[in-house]
Amino acid sequence: MTARPEATSADRAASRLTDFYGEMSSIDSIMRGLVREGVDAKKFTARDLYSRGLDVQTLGGLLVLETVIKGMEEYGAPNRGDAILDVGCGLGGPSRYLADRYGCRVTGVDLLPIRVEVASSLARMVGMDKQVTYRVADATQLPFKKGQFAQVWMLDASIHIRDKGRLFAELARVLAPAGLLVMHDQPGPLPPSMRPVMRRAPYIAPTLPQLIRHLQSVGLEVLTWRATTPLAVQDLKNKMEARQKAQATGSVSPARLKHSLAAGLGYIKALEKEGSQSGFFIARRVT
C-alpha cells in the first residue's frame, strides 16, 4: 500500500478556506443572483456581474473596490495591454473589472481550485477568457518571472496567509520596477466578535505598523493607506438586508442565511465598536 503524502500547510489552509468560502463559490449562486437582479442568466456581461457585486468578495464589495480603483488611478492607471496580477482572485470579479475598464491583461491566482474553476467559467461565459486567465497557485511561491507585472493586486487575501515575509517578497519580486502594489486588507489584531467566525478560516492579521514594515522590507515604498471602514460597514448592512429578503422568497437556505448573518453581525460589531478597520495600501516598487 502506498503511503498517503503528508498534507502541507498550504493544503491544510486550502481545505479550511474551501469550507469557509465553499457556499459562496458556485456558478449556481451567481446565476440565482443575476435572476434576482432581473438579468438574463443566459446572456450577461462582465459588467452585469461586477456592477452588482455578484463576483466581488472583497470586504465592502463594489463600494470598496471602486474606491480602491480611484485611489490607484491617482498614482497611475494600467495602460491597454499591461500585464496585471490579481493574487487571491476569488471568483474573478475585480480582475474582470480591471480588464474591462482599462483593456489590460489580467492573470488571477487563487489557492482554491473551485474558485479558479468558477472564475475561469465566468470569464468564458462573458467572452473575456483571452484577456483574463486564472490558475491555481500559492501566493508564497508564485509561478512567474521577476518583474513580470505592471501592477499586483491583492484584495482581502493576505489575512489568510501565515508567512507574511515570503508573501510580500513574492509580490515584490513579480512586480516590475516602479510598478504598483494595490492591496486591501484588515489589519489586526482580531477582535473578539470575529473569533467564532474566523475559526473556520486561517486569519493572521498583523497590525497596521507591522504591515507597513513588511512592505518596506521588500523594497516597496508605501504611497498611501486609506481607511474604508465606513464603506465596509454600509456594504455589510446592505447585504444582510438583501439576504433576509432573499430568505423570505425562499431563494436562500435558512442554514446559509444563519451563517451569513452571524458573519455580517460579527464584522459590523468589530468595525463599529471594537476598533477593527479595513483599508487599502498603494505601494511602489523602488528597488
Topology, element by element:
Elements: H1 9-21, H2 27-36, H3 46-50, H4 61-73, E1 83-87, H5 93-102, E2 105-110, H6 113-125, E3 132-136, E4 149-155, H7 164-174, E5 175-185, H8 195-198, H9 208-217, E6 220-227, H10 229-248, H11 254-273, E7 279-285
Helix pairs in contact: 4-10, 10-11
Main attributes of the structure:
alpha/beta; Rossmann fold; seven-stranded mixed sheet; 11 helices; 45% helix; disordered N terminus
Structure, described:
- The chain has 287 residues and is α/β, with parallel strands linked by helices.
- It has a single domain, classed as 3-Layer(aba) Sandwich (Rossmann fold).
- The protein is 45% helix and 17% strand.
- The protein is built from 11 helices and 7 strands.
- It has helices spanning 9-21, 27-36, 46-50, 61-73, 93-102, 113-125, 164-174, 195-198, 208-217, 229-248, 254-273; strands spanning 83-87, 105-110, 132-136, 149-155, 175-185, 220-227, 279-285.
- Strands 3-2-1-4-5-7-6 form a 7-stranded mixed β-sheet, with helices on both faces.
- α4 runs antiparallel to α10 (229-248) and α10 packs antiparallel against α11 (254-273).
- The longest helix has 20 residues, at 229-248.
- Mean pLDDT is 87; it is low at 1-5.
Strand content: 15-25%
CATH architecture: 3-Layer(aba) Sandwich
Q: Order of strands across the biggest sheet?
A: 3-2-1-4-5-7-6
Give me the oligomer status.
Answer: single chain
Mean residue pLDDT: 87
H/I helix tally: 11
Q: How would you name the CATH homologous superfamily?
A: Vaccinia Virus protein VP39
> How many domain units?
1
* Radius of gyration from the alpha-carbon trace, in angstroms: 18 Å
Instruction: Give me the secondary-structure category.
Output: alpha/beta
Number of strands: 7
The biggest beta sheet is recorded as: 7 strands, mixed
Shape: globular
Highest-level CATH class: Alpha Beta
SSE order, one letter for each helix or strand = HHHHEHEHEEHEHHEHHE
Report the CATH topology name: Rossmann fold
Low-confidence stretches: 1-5
Indicate the percent of residues in helices.
40-55%
Distance between the termini: 51 Å
